Here is the input.
Amino acid sequence: MSLYVASTLTNVALISFLALSAYLVLVVGEVSFGQQAFFGIGAYVTATVTAIFGGHVVVALLLSTIAGGLAALLLAALVIRLSGLYFAIASLCFAELLRLTLLRIRIPLEIDGRTTGMDGPEGFSNIRWIFENNFEVTDFLILTVLCLAALLVLLFFFERTTIMLRARLVGKDAILAQSLGIRPAQYRLAFIGLSGMVAGFGGALFALFNTHIEPQMFGVMLGVHALAYSIIGGLGAPLGPLIGVGIDIGLLESIRALSEYRMIAFGGLVAVLLILFPQGLLSPRVVNQLRARIWRRRV
Amino acid sequence: MDFLQTSIDGLLFGSAYALLALGFSLIFGIMKRINLAYGSSLLFGGALAVWLEPFLGGGALGLLLVTVFGAAVAGIYVERLCFSPHLGKTGTMASMIATFAIWMQLDEISSQLLPQRTHGFAGIDIEAISFAGIILRSDHVLHFWVAVLAIGALYWTLYRTRFGLLLRASADDPEIAYLLGGRVGLLGVATFAIAGFLGGTAAFLILSSDGQITPHFGLWSTFKGLVAMMLGGVGSLPGAIVGGLLLGFAEAHVTFYLGAEFRDILTFGLLLLILVLRPGGLMGVDVYRTGRLATERI
Amino acid sequence: MLEIENLSTSYGLIKALKGVSLTAEDGKVTCILGPNGAGKTTLMFTAAGILKPDSGSVKFGGAELAGLAAPKILQQGLALAPENRLVFPQMSVRDNLLAGAYIRHRSEATQVEEDLEKIFERFPVLKERTEQTAGTLSGGEQQMLSVARALMSRPKMLLLDEPSVGLAPLIVDEIFSIIRQMNKDGISILLVEQNAVKALEVADHFYLLDQGKVAFSGTPGEMANDDVIRRAYLGEH
Here is the structure.
């Protein structure tokens, strides 16, 4: 596998974490423009733990996940009364505030003769974990894919629990859910927190892989991309967001010959795709039909 | 004196924000949806104007006309591709993501029209006015008067014409408006064209006052328009005006006292604060809590 | 005269009307009764052109209306005051009424103004609230505004969908006296109503709709004598 293909695939896998995190928020019926914030928090936490404190990578990943989850909970608690457009814009503000704050924090450090630590717009350089542990790109790809697969399996089983069913009901019709004794606020808090954890974990891997991170990487474009993946892919199953990622990055890379006009073609394509499949490719309806078909065959 | 000077500067510049917010609010009022490609369609207008300038000439007036025209055409394109195919309750999300896709597309087209990234954008040369120690930048005064004119024209259209009556009726209840005989089908196009005129005018004012255009203008104006609209109150036209002026006012003061780097922190901090404390904005009706939108999602 | 013949309409996958035939005479009040889900509102929506019928015909004054778009039907003189979704809440009372006259040509501007005056005579409550936002009116006032708005298109026949639903008894009396008055002034009315007792006071002819079909047709006298209807709709045991 060439280096180029391996690093592209790793990026696909990394962005999939963000797409899945956007998916979890969409399940409870909210739209978030701010998932990139939790991704960024995860990245900065892991960078700090490994590059500055020399902490173990498992500790770093764990702390990143927790930090992402806590930040998401903080946002959710602040704006729990909001929904719809208001929630979306509040999450956008939150993420932009974080990014702008990161741009202002400058604590560069000199460790073993290399500059590291947060340095405002210059970012956080020399996150040397993969060099220190002799990770090749393909090794890291395997690690990332394994983590992603584990997450997908977890979500797949989660999909069949009553918690998920109730969450989907909250997402579809909060008032109806309430009349059935479900508390929408609890589910919103929980799922937004969960989405922050997924994003934080993905961000941690992102920092390890890129060895250099900077606030501009976590702009609104990243978050809206993640959202778009979930919606193009469909909200029926956790695989939907991954299909979205595949279409975007797969197509982006495949029509690289037209690289200059790539976004022009892609933007139009997504709009047309949405006219043809307004609910995304793997919409809940399609997933239910597929499920019924598979089930029938087994019987 | 500094305070007064800064306030006046801010309010004058804020009038362009108010125009941006009005375009945004108009689209939201009729469509009940957010148009992420709004700023990009304005960028497209500006880029087209700069690109065509060597062929057409016409100076500042030429730039204004092409910017407004380009923004309106791009707006109609957005409506046809992202809004009219996704009518009905279920289409809201698809429609928003489609506008995101077209945002990227229009940004890219504009970048192609601006190969050197930063291009000059001719301003209008009028001398600054000085009065009792207060200096009024001529371009800002022009902002103000053009904004007043545009807002006047918008209100006249909305409240004094048959078309405006239909537009308002349709914002309240599109199905009943159709039942009463309105040609609601083309209302979307008309709304986006008007929003394009308002936004295009704002874009021209801001770009000519900056003296340059870069591909960042798309995202920038989407943000400013969105923040100003949400500050004032979603879907409320007076709210958009107040929100725009307030944003200009606050930005000028933060820039003056704390420095330019705090300006955007203020913008988003202020908006988050308002959303937490008073979700409907300062003057708005809380559309998600009252009325039919309460049960709808983005 | 409105002649509906063998009309079938589907609402999504549900067949809501299964071959309905009825006639509403000129100058009369015709009333459609029926339980919830009988297809009454579907019938009104189909007649007004909001829903497209699968088959059957809707003739008004001899012209075929089935399949025409709502604005065209309104131009033929058939106006609907729909149930529940009554007024444009953010617009003033006056603008609501003007919106009702939207299809009338620009050259009729002076007549529209005159009609506005007539409306205010007929509905004095509305006159007091001309510039008030319609959303702030009470339920009964909104219902009157809805009827008044339908009148502003100068219809030959008014389709009223449950005008009394959710209103206090006194207001219901007022609404029905307005219906009677409008009918006296020469406007034919097709009325959908749950309140059969009140409808008996104004209607000239009754239809009972049940599960998408006409289950009964007759005069008020015939209806009052029908045992089943009396028990189900007039609350007698």
Q: What stands out?
A: Strands of chain A lie at 109-111, 114-116.
